[in-house]
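Run log, item B.
One chain of 503 residues. Sequence copied directly from the ordering sheet:
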Amino acid sequence: MSTRAEAADDPETAAPGSHAATTRARPARRMHSLRTRMLIVFVGLLAAATLGSVLIARQVMETRLVERSSAELHREVEKLRRLAAGVDPATGRPFGDDVRRLFSVYFDTGAWADGQTVLSFVDGEPFLRSPTYDAVYRLDRDAALLAQWRSVPTPRQGSVKTPAGRVDYLAVPVRQGERILGTLVVAHFRAADRGVVRDATIVTVVVGLAVLLVGTLLAWRMADGVLRPVEAVATAARGISETDLTRRIAVGGRDEVAAMAATFNAMLDRLEGAFASQRRFLDDAGHELRTPITIVRGHLELLEEDPAEREETLALVLDEIDRMSRMVDELILLAKAERPDFLRRAPLDVGTLTDELLGKAGALGERDWVLDARGDGVVTADRQRLTEAVMQLAENAVAHTGHGQEVGLGSALDGGVARFWVRDTGDGVAPEDQAAIFERFERRGPRSPEGGFGLGLSIVRAIAEAHGGRATVESRPAQGATFSIEVPLDGATYAEGSLWHGY
């Protein structure tokens, strides 16, 4: 049966319709869908930008060509004006009113731009013209245009539609005083620029497609690079079980994805530590509870009929049950320490609380109770929990000292921290035991006559850490020990090493 169960969990051997196969395929499909959506959005935006660039580039090109055409029309008119202001190169005399001679010289020396046609009119009749673009369309044979251009009183610029396409023109009268001698019309066929616009558009489209292709490949690589760590997180999460929390994700780079992987690894570290602590806790609790249960069972099985024996056995059983009940209460308290409602914080006067703690500690045993110091200030904390922790330290001090020995209790405030301590004059704690003495079920150092479960100092540490502080011990063998609780005044967690350690 174990072989079938392992096969069901194996992604390569699981049946296509099985739950294991579905569980593994579903995240892969989600990742694939997310990658596809990212690619579609990116490529769509890039394609829209490319198309927009082509259309804008075409419009800008056409606008620039129209502006250039207009400049060329005015350049030709200006050339005629300069010629009219000069002299006839053949006679060396001004042209005067001889407009025919003026047009003849102008057309003889003319050099026309591509797509440009020049017409002249004398006395309302066509005179000379440039032969350019005649194969496409003869403007001098268009009656409607001739009617507009025969005689214009003032310069006129415009655009007309012809069978050869749109034509831009500039018509100017040639005057001598108030008399109109003739008309010059410079026209430009926009169709001549069509090839330039087409070539520029083709180049823009080709470049845009190349950018689109390269951008698509880069988008795919980028999406893959972004989602690969996410897939690694999903794979690691699927591979995690209660017995194997060792899976980690390789972290590379310093970007957000690397931060996510590092955060996931940190979470796994905490989970692994929590599960390991839980397993140790269960093992230790089971071991500690097994002893009293064995004692109770053994005495019940050997219970005698004699009333005195029965009473003695009953007393022993009840004592063991009381021990188990106390252990269970302490374990419940430790479990509650991780709940958010474990503390009920309120402002507390440190000096007043110290006086109360000293008064309560005096009832724990006939010792020489001494007030070492009395802090002056206010701390935000849970009065009952702090009292419980300090009383636990006081009980520990009583257990490790004899009748009449000195036990000190005090408090102090410094650097944003309130510190409460209990000092005894017992046998102390060895340096190698101080790091582990606050662990659960740890009973190191001299044993108290009453015995214990090794949970008291764990409870002290749990209460201190719930306040955002910590529990510490300072001791040397045969010179006593000082156990302290350090709590931030405002209830916030403080940084390691920022505490005041003297009193």
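Observations after the first pass:
- The chain has eleven helices and twelve strands.
- Residues 1-25, 446-451, 494-503 have pLDDT under 50 and may be disordered.
Flagged for discussion on Thursday.
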